[in-house]
Amino acid sequence: MDPLPSNRPLRPAPVALDEHARDNLRFIRETMERASSFTAVPGWGGVAMGITALGAAAVASRQADSVSWFITWLAEAAVAFGIASFTTLSKARRANVPILAGPGRKFALSFAPPVFVAALLTVILFRAGLIWAIPGVWLLLYGTAVITGGAFSIRVVPLMGLCFMVLGTVALFSPASWGSILLAAGFGGLHIIFGAVIARNYGG
């Protein structure tokens, strides 16, 4: 004889304790990563810097002497700095992310030293007449700055820095005539590619 059916509702299968713990740990880890990361790296700002770098490369390639070539790229560096500063501040304000505290301060303090070294070496190389070495130094040390600063930012930023360092290494061992091409590939192409990725996935 079949047993009488039970009127009690079926209980859902209990969630395994280890699975619940993994979910909690994942949530905690992701929350801590967001809290400890500087997320105001400007994606569209990077795209804009890339576009101006491509324009600078086109202008620099038409210069008759190395000093004019150097001045063209110095002007581009000033324009890029202005774009980066404005777009970073704008994104930080929209996202309510502090610039001079927490991850923002760590990012800035880690990013600044390699850039300062690059500026010093630029002066030394220019005075020594070794302008051909400047593209490699710029790419290498900018990449170093992006990697060290990116340790306190979103994960794609250190990868971008590594790509800059690879290009910088190539530039140091390439003919001087490749300078503008490699600078365009780095400050132009890499900024556009990674800037678009950041803009799409990390809020502009």
Q: Explain this structure to me?
A:
By secondary structure, the chain is mostly helical. The chain has helices at 17-35, 43-60, 66-95, 103-127, 134-150, 156-172, 179-201. The protein has one domain. The protein contains 7 helices and no strands. The chain is elongated and about 70 Å long. The chain starts with 16 loop residues before the first helix and ends with a helix. The relative contact order is 0.15.
List the helices and strands and how they pair.
Blueprint: H1 17-35, H2 43-60, H3 66-95, H4 103-127, H5 134-150, H6 156-172, H7 179-201
Helix pairs in contact: 2-3, 2-7, 4-5, 5-6, 5-7, 6-7
Average of per-residue pLDDT values: 85
- Catalogue the unreliable spans: 30-35
Instruction: Give the number of helices.
Output: 7
C-alpha termini separation: 69 Å
Secondary-structure class: mainly alpha
What is the succession of H and E elements?
Answer: HHHHHHH
Number of spatially distinct domains = 1
For the sheet with most strands, the description reads: none
Rounded to the nearest angstrom, the radius of gyration is: 24 Å
Which descriptor suits the 3D outline? Answer: elongated
Record field, number of beta strands: 0
Structural key phrases:
204 residues; mainly alpha; 0% strand; 7 helices
Short description:
With 204 residues, the chain is an all-alpha fold. It has seven helices and no strands.
